[in-house]
Write a structure and sequence with these properties.
This protein has about 325 residues and is α+β, with helices and mostly antiparallel strands. It is about 30% helix and about 30% strand. The chain has 8 helices and 14 strands.
């Protein structure tokens, strides 16, 4: 058996997408595993966001698995990692983790995390063998949108701003995320949804100051799929009034999602972010999927009570 690791090529995306769907569809017990995720395009979106962080594993020259790295400044995420079901059980996931860690060796990456399902207990053991440890419950919640709903005062979409105003807003988003965790920067996610036209970034202002923002996907070909919207990352200014700011940001996200044709919007958070979790539930969001957030070297990251952050690490 010959193993090769290299960047995933654009001409391999269709095959990689099939492996991704077969792997997770099989894990979920679907009659047709290829139906997993519907018409969402997580593999293509992740590749387009950062082609150099998309990993292909070839076994004897055939594409056998993939892994993706999300580089958010000082925060580095791993996944989704998949191995084609007929090739599972041969240890092929280990080199995919090792290559991802190599990509995250940059000095500025201080915190490395991942999301994994607890449906298959082997996954937790896999990541533990590479220095990751289960740290908190990661929950994904959803809410039905209401057509025609107006957003709160101070709500606007990044795509509707002038180029100069967009640049100023991006700078403000970086400053806000840096306050959450030193060096945290999701500019790549913001630019990616805009360039791919798979979503937008929702902004919430208090006067002239940025109070919060949310990077969102919506519709066919995005990470959400038809009739759905998904928050990839969202944050509001921490401290007193954080719950109220997050409530208003959620209202803005729901209004934007409805305007984008989504009947349902999803978002995630961690059990350590008690305020964020409670705010979601109080606003009528209901859990639909739970997994575990694993942190390398047991780093606490930003899963704290005073942090009002939503994120989807899948």
């Amino acid at each position: 058996m010959t193993i090769e690791l290299r960047p995933l090529r654009e001409d391999e995306l269709r095959e990689a997408d099939g492996i991704y769907r077969r792997a997770f569809g099989t894990l979920c017990g679907l009659t047709d595993p290829l139906a997993f995720d519907g018409d969402a395009e997580r593999v293509r979106c992740r590749w387009a966001s950062d082609p150099g962080a998309a990993i292909a594993l070839l076994e004897d020259g055939a594409l056998a698995g993939t892994n993706f790295v999300s580089r958010w400044g000082s925060v580095g995420l791993l996944g989704p990692l998949v191995v084609d079901p007929p090739r599972q059980g041969r240890g092929l996931a280990h080199p995919l983790v090792e290559e991802a860690l190599r990509l995250l060796e940059q000095p500025q990456v201080a915190f490395r995390g991942l999301y994994t399902s607890v449906t298959d207990p082997r996954t937790v053991g896999l990541y533990q063998s590479h220095g990751y440890w289960p740290m908190s419950l990661a929950v994904l919640m959803q809410k039905a949108t209401a057509a025609g709903r107006e957003g709160p005062a101070g709500f606007e979409a990044l795509s509707r701003l002038t180029p100069d105003a967009q640049a100023e807003a991006l700078s403000a988003c970086r400053e806000l995320s840096d306050q959450v965790f030193d060096g945290l920067d999701v500019t790549g996610e913001v630019l990616s949804v805009g360039e791919q036209e798979t979503g937008d970034t929702v902004l919430l202002r208090d006067g002239s100051s940025l109070a919060g923002f949310a990077v969102c996907h919506a519709g066919k070909g995005s990470e959400a799929g038809s009739g759905r919207a998904a928050v990839r990352f969202a944050a509001v200014v921490s401290g007193e009034g954080g719950e109220e700011r997050l409530r208003r940001l959620l209202e803005a996200v729901e209004a934007w999602a409805a305007s984008a044709g989504a009947a349902v919007v999803t978002a995630g958070t961690g059990s350590g972010r008690v305020g964020a979790w409670r705010t979601l539930r109080a606003a009528g969001w209901l859990p639909f999927q739970q997994g575990v957030a694993m942190h390398r070297d047991r780093h606490p990251g930003y899963d704290r009570e005073d942090v009002f952050v939503l994120d989807d690490w899948r």
